[in-house]
Design goal:
Layout (H helix, E strand, L loop, with lengths): L7 E5 L3 H13 L3 E5 L2 H8 L6 E5 L7 H9 L6 E5 L4 H10 L3 E4 L4 H14 L12 E4 L2 E4 L4 E4 L2 E3 L3 H11 L8 H8 L5 H22 L9 E4 L3 E4 L3
Parallel strand pairs: 1-2, 1-3, 3-4, 4-5
Antiparallel strand pairs: 6-7, 7-8, 8-9, 10-11
Helix pairs in contact: 6-8, 7-8
């Protein structure tokens, strides 16, 4: 990962409202964001992706944030910021003993979180994608290999058209990050003229609809290939 590329953060919180607010705010601050609703989904994402920092809620159903932090510290030095409604000193100590780098009590100002993230990133080395083995995005039961561009449903390959394959490559290279329709048109090849541009952007919408039929359990309610109204499209692994 280049020093000029945006830091890729993993947000783990069972509260969908907080998760989405943080995702949108941090994207606007220039970060790449992938979000998980619980520790189990976070583990799946971490098995295929490297992150520069993890923002992790403590109080989650199932495995809590402190336990997940302990598990992370067995294999990685990726910085962790814990979020929790608890403010007592014993809870902060438990988080730090588990290996957390910082601790932010809810409610908090998003700008304060950004300042803490940047402070940690300044003193932490950037995470590099490992050269050994393919990098994989997990989309429910689907697996997308970023190196080969191959999509699989379990062990079965899923056939993508040339345009669908190109779209997946662009979106999968920026998981959790909004890609505008205009940028997708540029990647696929732009014809000149306002009329042609409008037609191409509509064609992108059609191709996105077709791609959803191949990767979404319910294409009418997309979970992985999301529309960000007024901005573009975003591929969210998990």
């Amino acid at each position: 990962m280049s020093d000029l590329s945006p830091a890729h953060l993993l947000i783990v919180d069972d509260d969908e409202r907080i998760r989405e607010l943080l995702k949108r705010y941090l994207i606007k601050q220039g970060f790449m964001i992938t979000a998980a609703r619980d520790a189990a989904q976070a583990r799946r994402l971490l098995s295929g992706l490297a992150f520069d920092l993890i923002v992790l809620d403590v109080m989650m159903p199932g495995e809590d944030g402190v336990a997940l932090t302990q598990w992370l510290r067995e294999s990685t030095a990726t910085p962790v910021i814990l979020l929790t409604a608890r403010g007592e000193s014993r809870d902060r100590i438990a988080g730090f003993e588990a290996g957390a780098d910082d601790y932010v009590a809810k409610p908090f100002e998003p700008r304060e979180l950004v300042l803490r993230i940047n402070a940690i990133l300044r003193r932490a080395p950037r995470v590099e994608q490992g050269p050994s083995g393919p990098q994989t995005l997990i989309l429910g039961r689907m697996r997308y290999d970023l190196d080969s561009g191959e999509l699989r449903d379990g062990s079965d390959p899923v056939r993508l058209t040339q345009t669908e394959s190109a779209l997946m490559r662009v979106l999968a290279a920026r998981p959790g990050q909004v890609v505008s329709r205009e940028a997708l048109v540029d990647h696929l090849g732009r014809d000149r003229g306002a009329r042609a541009e409008t037609a191409q952007e509509r064609a992108i919408d059609v191709q996105i609809t077709r791609l959803r039929r191949k990767i979404e359990p319910d294409p009418r309610r997309p979970r992985f290939l999301q529309t960000v109204r007024g901005e573009g499209y975003m591929l969210s692994a998990g």
